[in-house]
Design a protein that fits this description.
The protein has about 400 residues and is an alpha/beta fold. It folds into two domains: about 150 residues, Rossmann fold; about 220 residues, Rossmann fold (3-Layer(aba) Sandwich), CATH 3.40.50. Helices cover about 40% and strands about 20% of the residues. Strand 9, helix 11 and strand 10 form a beta-alpha-beta unit. The radius of gyration is 19 Å and the shape is globular. The structure holds pyridoxal-5'-phosphate. It holds the Pfam family PALP.
Length: about 400
């Protein structure tokens, strides 16, 4: 409980709700309602049923034998890549759409970077027959063209964000603007543990299914419910919070969060927020973000669109500051190589985001008895072009 959110929506020094006056009613409604709604037994039944029969949960916990042999530890992969739509994002999208319905909302908006959250949102909107508008950076739309087509096929409207770096943070700004203009009938499905309170907490709870299942599966497979290490990549930090959630109070579990170093931490083309960032306010919460001396947000860079974000969620900022989790970073090249290695050792092509977590194994030393869990947050289908270009297949 030591790392939980307090009554005011803060994790230590971070969090809160820094929002324009006009969004206050929406955020206040969410804050007052989300726990009541999500704790309602009827809600739980519907949520659990969709996770099971629609998403395909529980996702397997797979002992990767050849990877384990290479690194000299027992390495278990939490297979979020096998979820419907190919990543962990669907867990949160389902949680929020069921919430939006109960709040009487008729229209859903979302932002997306890699397109995975947009696809997950468009998917659940199709499932429930609700209008869906997705904001996406113009550059990301080019990088992730198949996901744009998928969203359109699912019936969503995809609106390009053409300002700034034309990537995720600009799409997020556009979505916020839409919400300000449509406060009554619209719910904004944020895709990571970012944004004003209660979003970071709400999204973390929806994703906490990852460590909830992992604990049970570890107990079945190893006789112990706690691993020695839990690793996950961090963009905004939702798959990592999901993987860390039920281990936070067990200090024996070493938590490792892997950010994108892009071309290198000091290259000027990076998204290694915990190294390069300072405290400030981004997208409605107090957190750590990459900013210039006069407080302008610095354009982040990573080869993976999902990690190309200038901040981290407020709970991560807290875990970083109090050193409960270790924040490290991995370059584009290191991640791509780790993606190739996982493909050839285990027959699993990971999302480049997830490959960042795997790349950090190279930098660790283990005891042979160590149990290591890694969140394999998504599958690599969407990244094939990038892999192909890099390796020349
Ligand atoms: C979006 C995405 C991420 C990054 O988002 P988090 O909120 O940090 O989890 C990581 N992996 C995959 C596969 C994604 O689609």
């Amino acid at each position: 409980m030591k790392y939980s959110v307090n009554e005011q929506g803060y994790y230590g020094d971070f969090g809160g709700a820094y929002i324009p006056e006009m969004l206050y009613p929406n955020i206040e409604e969410l804050r007052q309602q989300y726990e009541i709604i999500t704790n309602d037994p009827a809600y739980r039944v519907e949520f659990d049923a969709l996770l099971k029969d629609y998403v395909g949960r529980p996702s397997p916990l797979y002992l990767a034998k050849r990877l384990s042999a290479k690194y000299g530890a027992n390495i278990y992969l939490k297979r979020e890549d096998l979820n419907h739509t190919g990543s962990h994002k669907i867990n949160n999208a389902i949680g929020q759409i069921l919430l939006a319905e109960r709040l009487g909302k008729k229209r859903i908006i979302a932002e997306t970077g890699a397109g995975q959250h947009g696809v997950a949102t468009a998917t659940v909107c199709a499932l429930r027959g609700i209008e869906c508008v997705v904001y996406m950076g113009e550059i990301d739309m080019e990088r992730q063209a198949p996901n744009v087509a998928r969203m359109k096929m699912l019936g969503a409207t995809v609106v390009p964000a053409t300002s700034g770096s034309k990537t995720l943070k600009d799409a997020t700004n556009e979505a916020m603007r839409d919400w300000i203009n449509n406060p009554v009938d619209t719910h904004y499905i944020i895709g990571s543990v970012v944004g004003p309170y209660p979003y970071p907490e709400m999204v973390a709870r929806f994703q906490s299914i990852i460590s909830f299942e992992t604990k049970k599966q570890l107990l079945e497979q190893t006789g112990k419910e706690l691993p020695d290490y839990a690793l996950a990549c961090v963009g905004g930090g939702s798959n990592a919070m999901g993987m860390f959630y039920h281990f936070l109070d067990d200090e024996s579990v070493k938590l490792i969060a892997v950010e994108a170093a892009g071309l290198g931490v000091d290259s000027g083309h990076s998204a290694a927020t915990s190294v390069l960032g300072r405290e400030g306010v981004l997208h409605g919460s107090r957190t750590i973000l990459m900013q210039t001396d006069d407080g302008q947000v610095v354009e982040p860079y990573s080869i993976s669109a999902g990690l190309d974000y200038p901040g981290i969620g407020p709970q991560h900022a807290h875990l970083h500051k109090v050193k409960r989790a270790k924040y490290v970073s991995i370059t584009d090249d290191e991640a791509l190589n780790a993606g190739l290695l996982l493909s050839q050792l285990e027959g699993i092509i990971p999302a480049i985001e997830s490959a960042h977590a795997f790349a950090y194994l190279e930098k660790m030393t283990f005891k042979p008895t160590d149990n290591v869990v890694i969140c394999l947050s998504g599958r690599g289908d969407k990244d094939l072009d990038t892999y192909i270009k890099h390796f020349g297949y």
